Amino acid sequence: MFDLITGQARHIPRRQTMPMLLSIAAEVGAVALIAAASVVVATDHVPEIPSMMAFVAAPPPPAPPPPPPPLPAPRATPPAARPVPTTGAFAAPVEAPSRIEPEAAAGLDAGEEGVQGGVEGGMPGGVLGGIVGGLPTEAPPPPPPPAPKRPVRVGGEIKTPALVSRVEPVYPAFAMAANIQGTVILEAVVDEQGAVQDVTVLRSQGLLDKAAVAAVRQWRYSPLLLNGRPEKFILTVVLTFHLEQK
Fold first, then answer.
1. What's the rounded Cα separation, in Å, for the pair 243 and 182?
2. Other beta carbons less than 10 A from residue 119's beta carbon
3. Residue 224: pLDDT above 90?
4. pTM above threshold 0.90
5. For 6, phi and psi rounded to 5 degrees?
6. Helix (H) or strand (E) run with residue 35 in it
7. Which of 190, 241, 195, 185 is nearest to 218 (CA)?
8. Residue 5: which H helix or E strand, with range?
9. Quick one: residue 106, left, alpha or beta (phi over 0 = left, psi -120 to 50 = alpha)?
10. Which residues have a Cβ under 8 Å from the Cβ of 169 and sit 6 or more positions away?
11. CA 52 to CA 142: how far, in whole Å?
12. Per-residue pLDDT tens for 73-97?
C-alpha cells in the first residue's frame, strides 16, 4: 500500500489475457476458412450460362410478276363454199357455155305441159316461179264480223239525254183494291234513235212490275251523240206507285 502512495508500485502482468487473444484469433480464422469454403463450393455448383448469338437474315427478294395471259388463237376462216358439180341432163353448168347445142335446145319442147302442183326443182314445161303444191283452189274464209258494241252507261261525264216523250203507268185495279204501293226500279236500254229497246226489273213490287215496264217501253229520248256519232246507252228508271188517301 505504501508503494502506491510513493509512486513506485509495479504492475504484475496477468496471465489470462494471452490465452483469450489466441482463442479469438483462432475463432476468426475458423470463420474465415468456413466462409471461403462455402464460396468455393457455391461457385462449383453454379451452371454456366451459355452465350447466345442471334443472326438477322435479310428479307427474301420480291416474287416476279405473273406472266401476261396468252393471246387468243386466231380463228380460222372457213373457206368459201364451192359449187358442187352435178351430173345429169338438166344440171346447171358451172360456167356459161360458149354456144348451145341444137340437140339440147330441141329437148325442151314448148308444147310440153307442166305437172299440176309443180315439182320441187322444176321440170320441162313448168311455169317459171311456180308454187310447190299448186295454187289454192278455195278462197280463204272471210274475216269474222266485228263484235257488237256494248251500250254506254250514262252518268258522270256522260249526261242523260233529254226525255222527249213520257207515258205514265196505269195503276192496276187489283193493286189498287189490295192497297199495294211501292217503288219499282228498272234498267232501260235505248237504241241509237232514242227508242227504248229493252227493260229489266232491278227492284220488284210484284203486281206493279208489268205496268211499270209497259209504260217505260213507250218512252222516247234524244239520241246520245259521242264524237258526233249516235250510240246506244243504258239508264236507270225509278217509278213510284202511290195511292191518294180519300
1. 10
2. 11
3. yes
4. no
5. -75, -15
6. helix 17-45
7. 195
8. helix 2-6
9. alpha
10. 208, 211, 212, 214, 215, 239, 241
11. 110
12. 777 666 665 555 555 555 565 666 6
